[in-house]
Specification:
The complex is a heterodimer of chains A (165) and B (658). Chain A has 165 residues and is of the alpha+beta class. In chain A, 25% of the residues lie in helices and 26% in strands. Chain A folds into two domains: 36 residues; 97 residues, Nucleic acid-binding proteins (OB fold (Dihydrolipoamide Acetyltransferase, E2P)), CATH 2.40.50.140. Chain B is of the alpha+beta class and 658 residues long. The radius of gyration of chain B is 27 Å and the shape is globular. The chains are: A alpha+beta (165), B alpha+beta (658). Strand 1 of chain A pairs antiparallel with strand 1 of chain B, so a sheet runs across the interface.
């Protein structure tokens, strides 16, 4: 403890700041090294073609579930539907239980990758909490091409119908 | 009528806050006692008026006054009483009103419990608190007034989102807000200290109970939210690293760091400016969380209704509060004279390590949460940062913290001896290694991370016991050990229990993530399937009617071998107002884990799609969180932490632990 107060204080400050920056630096490196799975693109159907996404690459797909596109396979567990942003559409396949708020004509966010046939195989279909709300990224960017049912809906008496059952 | 009373009261809150923010501050500068004493009075006025406004809104919800548009949009006559009340804060406007109510409540508590604080200091704390109230109330009045009328009044309301009609979520927002807003007290104390230009151990002694209180509520709020997600959303998950969840997790991390660094200020008079900075950061995270959640700029599955105008207002408020306090910090902090030297190996250093890791983790979560925003702003398209990133960061940053956590409490203040501490926790290390290796061996490899997690949990748990054992000299003189056990202070029990709670959480996370057994299948009545040694037999479905929903209820009989265990009754509900499906998972907690069943849709031919889980040790998550809360409350009830303590109790005045 012979060293003077000021130098010790400075020393400690140095140690702490080096510790902090190196830890943050390390984690940032990890972030970019991990790349593939950690960071996933969030795309709408028309962007898939524009960007030429390869099969097997993991990404999030957002858009509207096209009305009348929904059907269930005979096994009772595999669902097919089309996600559209009105400029383009994308076939989606999902095996599992769909979230409660899944509806035709409404926004949906799915996670997965394209298979060899160009079908998006979703591992997750995300629910949303609030019915009046469309998750960012599901509203079509080319909005003039279609009317979003939620944007058009008034606060009262939203007519929504169920797909399930 | 109630609406107008509420609106009027709210305006009074604004006026009182404006007076309370300005005049006591002037009084503090001029040394005018009367102006400073105004701070207490305006604090009480704000609280009473905010209470009146909140009561008015609650009344409107209770009597279903649909002429108030907020009630019409979020309530319904058929809703059960509990959800009529929880509907008050189940929406944007009402939740902000609750925020203000809690903010003024805390100011009143500071005024009441802090009667022994120096007047000047208390006046400054309360005036900062009033400034925050002023900001929030103007936000409410300008952009989100809950008392706006709706003409003509509809006959029936829109109803509350059925997902939110749940006991877990009814209490989740108030709890979380008590935590968020509780941090405002630490913030106000920090700003007052900066204005006064000094941070003393006494300051830390004032700040710590408030931070602890906020931390307990924050822990409870997060745990409730996570529990709700687990049983209500029906995916069997409990944490998704979603921006909204991260928004509550970041203040928690900062508050945890603050709790620990305040100890160093209190005991050793060191780390002062860092602690002040942490107090500012912790509350800034609370505000940021509110901004992220309420502005909806981030893609979140929990997203709430949004309005860009509100986002801009909160952003401006955020900029003023954070920018202003940081500027003040940059100006005043260098004046704080450091003292209290300590060696590299010491309790202080261990707490510094704790702070480095916790704040780095908070920074990483912040980066991960905001990164998509920056990428989008730079025009590179939309991306999301997924759970693998956060999980990796948690593993990298929290593992060394947990390792250090086992040793830290054993080190002496100022200059500790690592070999001595290691000697005490050596058994813990051995037990942890054995546990980890045994797992690897029994699963014949391939579970390295699980073994590591298990090892960490066992290490921490054993180290906590080793610490208590060494404190009561269990091995040296077992005869008097029990007598010494009673001498352990509540604060020390609190620490041990909270640390053990963390170990229990790690155990729950590790085991449930690694060994969950999941089955997704279609079942017809009479079918049965095996999930982790339990036979689930599907007995069919029946329709059920609830107060404001109808449901399809599935019947499952669960048996282990030939022994009947339980019946699980998951439901698929359709609420009538608004029309919406919700999944009610059926959960039966066993000691070894949860049996979890979800019923999906009809798959034709009387078959139903179902999802069945066995989630081992998942209850440890909530149990661990509960232990943390109990630890916090115990520590809070310790006499040494009570405010205004010196009078007449000489024994407790200065009592150093260990």
């Amino acid at each position: 403890m012979a060293a003077g107060l000021k130098t010790r204080k400075k020393q400690r400050l140095l140690v702490v700041s080096i510790g902090l920056t190196s830890l943050i630096g390390a984690t940032l490196l990890v972030l970019f090294a991990l790349g593939g799975d950690s960071l996933s693109l969030f795309l709408q159907p028309s962007e898939i073609k524009a960007r030429g996404i390869e099969q097997g690459k993991h990404f999030r797909l957002g858009g509207l579930v096209e009305s009348g596109s929904f059907f269930k396979e005979d096994d009772g567990l595999t669902y097919h539907f089309i996600v559209t942003d009105c400029a383009a559409s994308q076939d989606v396949q999902f095996k599992g239980l769909l979230p409660d708020l899944f509806r035709e004509g409404q926004g949906v966010v799915t996670e997965g990758a394209l298979n060899a046939n160009g079908v998006f195989v979703a591992s997750t279909v995300l629910a949303k909490h609030d019915e009046n709300y469309a998750p960012p990224g599901t509203l079509p960017k080319s909005e003039e091409q279609c009317v979003h049912p939620e944007a058009a809906a008034s606060t009262y008496g939203t007519a929504s119908y169920l797909v399930s059952g | 009528m109630a609406g107008e009373i509420g609106h009027f009261s709210l305006i009074w809150v604004l006026v009182a806050a404006a007076i309370g923010a300005v005049l006591p501050q002037i009084g503090a500068v001029k040394g005018d006692t009367r102006l400073m004493q105004l701070a207490d009075r305006t604090a009480y006025v704000q609280f009473l008026m905010a209470l009146a406004a909140f009561a008015a809104l609650t009344y409107a919800f209770l009597v279903s006054d649909f002429s108030v548009s907020n009630v019409a949009a979020n309530s319904h006559t058929l809703k059960p009483l509990l959800y009529k009340i929880s509907g008050v804060w189940g929406n944007h406007e009402g939740s902000l009103l609750l925020w203000v109510l809690i903010l003024t409540l805390f100011a009143t508590l500071v005024s009441w419990r802090g009667a022994k604080l120096p007047l000047r200091f208390r006046a400054r704390v309360l005036s900062v608190q009033s400034l925050l109230v002023f900001g929030f109330v103007s936000f409410i009045l300008l952009t989100s007034n809950p008392f706006l009328r709706f003409d003509p009044a509809p006959f029936e309301g829109n109803g509350l989102n059925p997902l939110l009609q749940d006991p877990g979520l009814a209490f989740h927002p108030p709890m979380l807000y008590l935590g968020y807003v509780g941090l405002s007290v630490s913030f106000s104390f920090a700003i007052a200290a900066l204005l006064e230009g000094e941070v003393t151990p006494l300051w830390a002694r004032w700040v710590r109970p408030w931070t602890l209180l906020a931390w307990v509520f924050l822990t409870g709020g997060i745990a409730l939210g996570s529990w709700w997600a687990y049983y209500e959303l029906g995916w069997g998950g409990w944490w998704f690293w979603d921006p909204v969840e991260n928004a509550s997790f970041m203040p928690w991390l900062a508050a945890t760091a603050l709790l620990h660094s305040a100890i160093v200020v209190e005991k050793r008079d060191a780390l002062k400016s860092w602690t002040v900075l942490l107090a500012i950061i912790a509350f800034s995270f609370s505000l940021l969380g509110t901004f992220l959640v309420r502005s909806g700029i981030l893609t979140s599955v929990h997203a709430f209704a949004v309005d860009p105008e509100r986002g801009v207002f909160i952003l401006a408020f955020l900029a003023i509060v954070i920018g202003g306090s940081m500027a003040l910090y940059a100006w005043r902090a260098p004046k704080m004279v450091p003292s209290g030297l300590f060696g590299i190996v010491s309790r202080e250093s261990a707490l510094v390590v704790n702070n480095i890791f916790l704040s780095t983790f908070a920074a990483v979560v912040l980066i991960g949460t905001l990164y998509p925003l920056f990428v989008e702003a730079s025009g590179a398209g939309q991306i999301t940062v997924g759970p693998p990133f956060f999980e990796y960061a948690a593993a990298v940053l929290m593992s060394p913290l947990v390792v250090a956590l086992g040793i830290g409490p054993l080190l002496a203040w100022k200059r500790g001896k690592l070999p001595k501490a290691m000697q005490i926790v050596l058994p813990a290390l051995v037990v942890a290694l054995i546990a980890g290796l045994a797992l690897v061996w029994s699963q014949s490899g391939g579970v390295v991370m699980t073994a590591f997690g298990l090892g960490l949990a066992v290490w921490l748990l054993t180290a906590v016991f080793a610490e208590i054992a060494s404190r009561i000299k269990l091995w040296q003189s077992p005869g008097n050990a029990f007598g010494r056990l009673r001498k352990i202070t509540r604060a020390q029990w609190g620490m041990s229990i909270a640390h053990a709670g963390l170990a229990v959480i790690i155990l729950g996370v590790t085991v449930s993530e690694a060994f969950t057994d999941e089955q997704l299948l279609v079942m017809a009545p009479g079918d049965s399937t095996m999930v982790a040694g339990h036979t689930f037999t599907f007995d069919g479905v029946a329709p059920v009617a609830g107060p404001n929903y109808s449901a399809v209820r599935g019947f499952f009989t669960v048996a282990e071998g030939d022994d009947f265990v339980t019946t699980l009754l998951p439901e698929d509900r359709v609420y009538s107002n608004p029309v919406m499906n919700t999944t009610e998972a059926a959960i039966y907690p066993l000691f070894t884990g949860d049996l979890y069943a979800v019923i999906g849709e009809a798959a034709g031919g009387n078959r139903w799609s179902v999802r069945l889980y066995f989630k081992p040790m998942i209850s440890a998550l909530w149990a661990g969180a509960l232990m943390m809360m109990i630890g916090g409350l115990l520590s809070l009830s310790d006499r040494r932490l009570r405010l205004g303590l010196p009078t007449g109790r000489k024994k407790i005045a200065v009592k150093e632990s260990v």
